[in-house]
Amino acid sequence: MISLKSVSHSYAGQKDIGFSDWQINDGEQWLLLGESGSGKTTLLHILTGILKPKQGEVQINNTSIYELSAKDLDQFRGRNIGIIFQQPHLIKSLSISENLVLAQSFAKLPTDLKRVNEVLDSLGIEGKKSAYPDELSQGQLQRVSIARAVINKPALLIADEPTSSLDDKNAAIVLELLMQQSGANQATLVVATHDKRVKDAFINTYELS
Amino acid sequence: MSPLKISWKSLWSKPLSSALNMMLIAFGTGILTILLLASNQIAQKLDNNSKDIDLVVGAKGSPLQLILSSIYYIDFPTGNIPLKEAKELSRSPFVKRAVPLALGDNYNGTRIVGTDSNFVAIYKLKVQTGKLWTKDFETTIGASVAESQQLKVGDTFYGAHGLTSNSDVHKSHQYTVSGILAPQGNVTDNLILTNIASVWKMHDDHEEGEAHEHKDGESHHKEEHGDEGKELTSLLIQYRSPMSVAIFPRMVNETTNMQAASPAQESTRLFSLIGVGVETLQWFAVLIMLIAAISVFVNLYNSLKERKYDLAIMRTLGASRGKLFLIVIAEGIILTLAGTLIGIALGHLALQFIGNYQESSQAKLTGLVFLKDEIYLFVAGLAIGIFAAIIPAVQAYRSNISRILSKN
Questions:
Q1: Which phi and psi angles does A115 have, rounded to 5°?
Q2: Is the CB of B316 less than 8 angstroms away from the CB of A107?
Q3: pLDDT tens-digit series, residues B79-110
Q4: What is the complex's ipTM, to 2 decimals?
């Protein structure tokens, strides 16, 4: 369970942005809607433990994440939160499977090549295992970034505008894969977007004003 | 996956700039290695050759030249000294041992030295095959000479006038190899030793005259008389006591027509002359290392700008700040350490190469010797790596990942 309680944040010299309380139950799939500049990215960063809010509390599976030490928070994030960005941002000097192993080792989990193969297989890119990011298409790269996000079976899967740089066909595929992966890994899914193509797929919506 | 492996992979992803940085470091370290090895070996050789010789007495002129010609056998002698005066000096109470030297001939560039058994004693020479020279025109040759000129015991050869040229060959007398010395690791490996009379006789033939009359088998009295016209090149002196240092050289310089030069003093002077060049080169190498350090820094700093998103992603994957710091600093250290190792290896290789093509066999250099001091080069490489990588690493450590990620 993930909960957001009376969270607000302000950047230096700017007005406070308040966020209404939010409770996400295990396995739910949520859409986070908001125009550019409405604080969508800020809220996502707060949820993923990379931006400490000025006020309020964020709990993920009964852990108040901003009460952890910096190092513990890094490790907690690595194990419990999977993030998918608008751009795939894979490490260029590492092969696809090495990028996934990297995620395992940063979370201080043992290298599990079986799991790597399993995840790549479920996303239909097992053939690209030894390829480097430069050799893959945009759609394939986005799949790899989904694979990297779910490799450690996180409790929370967060996607920030995962479809906005993709065409209709690939957007639909990526969205479907996200839903499917969050289901397969029993992860709670939050997709932040202003992409109208995505809206219909979700029942739960958290809207920023 | 360890930070080291991530750094390693990252370096391999931009091979050109990594190679350039490594080459710069390797070049600087290589020069320093060569200087270190060469100056060390030269100093050692200088010491080795003049180990038991306290003083050289020869004709007036440059003391350095006297030392160079009579200890290291590289320069021309300053002139000759009368045998009679040399003998008087040898009998001085300050002198424990005096070695007469008569230079002037060569065989294919190898110097022929006329001397006596004192030479064998002062250099502690041992014979490997054959025996020491006893009769006129018998020679005992150094180990390197036997090898390079392919001479065996029993072989004969003609000496040539002068110290290097082959043009004026003494056809009238033939030298015979009677023995080959065991390798000594000093200048005697490259000499042909014979008795003084042989050298004199070689040259008497040119003048064709009176000298012929004072041949072997003459009485002691006659020999005394024979000293009149005869000359030596120089005299190597071993003192009887340390006290001699204060008195004997001054006595030679003031009361005779000859000069006394101390090998230790002149070697130090010679080395300080070489030292200026060595020092210049050292600064040059240090400058190259400095440029290399700056280049590694710029490279890491620039790549950090490109990679800050990568590093932020690593943080979201669970990497701690410390880990990012390690990844960046390891890149700098891998670069410079690899460069240092390559540089040290290149330095040794280059010196070995130089040694192989060196003409003067007296001071042959080798790259196969390793010195303890090279560990300092290694430490310097490490320090440069840390120095160049510390600022980028601190930046990676401090980076605000939320800000980087939101500037998508």
A1: -65, -40
A2: no
A3: 899 988 888 888 888 899 999 999 988 888 88
A4: 0.88
